[in-house]
Design a protein that fits this description.
This protein is mainly β. The chain is 3% helix and 38% strand. It has a five-stranded antiparallel β-sheet, with no helix packed on it. It has a four-stranded antiparallel β-sheet with strand order 6-7-10-11, with no helix packed on it. A two-stranded antiparallel ribbon has the order 8-9.
Length: 182
């Protein structure tokens, strides 16, 4: 005779659905901003802001367009002090990193940091102290993913990547739910 077994309880699936699909419900950009915020020398500190939305897949499937496809809004803010080398990245009000990084005057003019979002997606900030590449430097955006392909492969001083896709290649709100190229 076998021992009684405890009742089995259904387990919730721990896998979360993706936050977006690049074709069916793409992310779209709201705004990008770069401002000088140093207290004494304004150009010694920069605040870079990226605002975007993951579109609502059920709204797109229902045939809605533009604002009708608005999903969850997100904001990533990077503050970079070129003097102290401090870099802080905040995603939706949560500090992703607050680190002291070698300052740019010592020759370290690039910074990048990656983190996971929603358990399935990698987000990465790429920052260059200079707005133009150094002499002889490739004019491609080079990240932890390697050279980024597609329309955004030119050099950018600041960029936010979502699974390797540049923020500047995100869909425009007016294209959501249409057959226009994102």
């Amino acid at each position: 005779m076998s021992a009684p077994q405890p009742p089995t309880t259904p387990t919730k699936s721990t896998s979360t659905p993706p936050l977006y699909h690049p074709i069916y419900n793409p992310p779209y950009k709201i705004s990008y901003g770069s401002e000088l915020t140093g207290k004494i020398i304004r150009s010694s500190k920069r605040r870079i802001t990226f605002q975007f939305v993951f579109s609502d897949p059920s709204a797109i499937a229902a045939g809605k367009k533009g604002l009708g496809c608005r999903g969850s809004e997100h904001e990533v803010i990077m503050t970079w002090s070129h003097i102290s080398g401090t870099v802080e990245i905040i995603h939706d009000g949560r500090v992703v990193t607050n680190t002291h990084w070698s300052n740019s005057y010592a020759g370290n003019t690039r910074f990048n940091h990656a983190w996971m979002v929603g358990g399935k997606h990698q987000m990465e900030i790429v920052a260059n102290a200079s707005g133009t590449p150094k002499r002889g430097e490739k004019k491609k955006l080079t990240t932890s993913w390697g050279d980024v392909g597609g329309p955004s492969k030119e050099y950018r001083q600041f960029d936010l990547l979502l699974d390797g896709m540049s923020f500047f290649d995100f869909c425009e709100m007016s294209h959501l739910g249409t057959k226009e190229k994102h």
